[in-house]
Amino acid sequence: MTSYFIRRFLLIIPTFIGITLLCFTIMQIVPGGPLEQEIMKLRMGLAARGETAVGAGGTGTGAIEIPQEAMEEMKRFYGFDKPIHIRYFRWIYNLAQLDLGNSYVFAEPVWRVIFQRFPISVYFGLIGFILAYSVCVPLGVFKAIRHGSPFDFLSSFLVFLGYSVPGWAVGAILLVLLGGGSFLNVFPLGGFRSEYWENLSIIGRIWDQVWHTILPVLAYMVGSFATLTVLTKNSLMENLGQDYVRTAFAKGLSEKRVIFVHALRNSLIPIATGLGHLLSLIMAGSYLIEYTFNINGMGLLGFTSIVKRDYPVVLGLLVINSLLLLTGNIISDIFYALIDPRIRFK
Amino acid sequence: MSNEVSVSIFRKRLRKFKSLKRGYYSFLFLVTLYLISFLCPLLMNNKALIVRYNGTTYFPVFKYYPGKEFGQEIYGEANYRQLKDAFKQEGGNNWVLMPPYPYSPYEHLLDLPGQPPHTPSAAHWFGTDTSGRDVFVRLAYGFTISISFALVVLLVDYAIGIIVGSMLGYFGGKFDIIVQRFVEIWMAMPFLYTIMIVSSIIKPNFFLLVFVLGLFGWMGMTFYIRGEFYREKAKDYVSAAISIGSNDRTVIFKHILPNALTPVISFGPFAVVGYIGALVSLDYLGFGLPPPTPSWGQMVQQGMQNIFDWWLVFFPLGALFVTLLLVVFIGEAVREAFDPKVFSRLR
After folding, report:
1. For the whole prediction, is pTM greater than 0.90?
2. Nearest by CB: B285 against A19, A291, A323
3. Contact B15, B60 (CB under 8 A)
């Protein structure tokens, strides 16, 4: 087993290189990089001052040539003069030190911009995650035990809903219904805290925070609701049909003991392996839900930075998300191998 | 011995599928709706079907006629609803036959009382959006687009999945490990985010979007098929085929593939749910199909910006819910018929 893990970790390296190469390539072909932005600024500046630089003749409309020396200088400044593999290694070197460049929009290091949104995304992700698991797993167990009952059918409707409608769509409908649209006005339209949050008492602050959290977290949960509940239920039912459960009943154990002590532990295996993605779930944020509820998290940052063409932030987020997903996959694999004693990879 | 004609496994599964009422009827309903939706230009359009004017018959739904042709004092295309009223008032032999729901998804209806968006009414069943376009018609046209999109992406992913997956599963070994690294890299790219980046660079049209979505979504299918191929390859009939001298291509396509495909068929409807969801999500964020294409996501986006106009959010999402629900029912039935593992239902 250890050899499997060692091999797995070693295999991270080529995948990591591949991911960063891909992101780097996207960075190169993306228009509007720093060099081009400077060129644009220069051109507009020259045009505004009515100067025609060396090489342009005649009326001055159309392409204004920038002197060759200036171009070289700028290239050297931004590091574009080096061949592409040197640029790549330099970028990786910066990456290792968490230097992702500076954001165009915020004029701050990208890392700081992302880090500021961190707590908010983690807050929603963690709460959503904990709630999802603590609701869905017991629900799944209940459905398995009461398979075919009216409760089962009713909750199946919710499961179908969660499966067919994307989470943000449920959030949108909830907002329209309860968020001050044409119907009830129970919840705020979005955001993380009210503007006057500072002025509230402690209780007021807590209540306000909770008030803002309810709808987005519900939207988060809907997504995993269907899959998690059904997974738990099916896994438990499959286990309940196994021989060892029969033996346990034959031995005379009470139903409760058989289900909760013996069968449940085995049925939790597929669910536990999903925990590996906890990391990426929590940190990546969901831009769709944050967009719907106007929450200033990492997801919304990703979305707005694409719209504003703030490419350092975009690519920084891309790299972070990719690496998180990769780590999540690996941790899932490890969990799976650790928990399920039947898995013994060669 | 019974006198039953031997029935192929596929036929048996089809029969089972037909016996599952919920899935089968959903399937029939959805297919009928989809086929009818292709007739949308004939059913919902602001162009008349037939116009009879001064003895000649025109078919404006197929050809463009300027207003001057029919004696209207307007520039550009004739306004057939006005024409119909005008002819009626005149009396005489001129008449206009309009489609049952005489509005177009691209038309801005600015002549209604009040300001857009308008609430649902008898004339406009689902109201209008912020530019004055009828919501019901846009929903209907969007339906065709969404489902066609999902089907095309499904085809693309199936094609890639079969080609790559079959090779991975059949040849295995080093080839498998190397390509798996690539797949892992590809899988680590956040799906929607990368698509958003690509689509912000090149403004996509329908087919480009299909291409991009197919590019990032083929992994699931491929993994599935690869797993099936691994399983089948160990079976006896494969060794038998090889031993009588079939080449690789025959073994893959003629022998293994039909068996490997059956569990993959059950994966299809759920993949469709994913694709429709992805398209709506992209449109909702503004990175999908370009305006003024009628798309559900774009309508929801408008709805969220005008939260007091609930019909802009409810009807598109309602349509989305119903469509996806039907597809899930179909998927459940397909899975039950083709790949029945005892406790694998979505209930």
Report:
1. no
2. A291
3. no
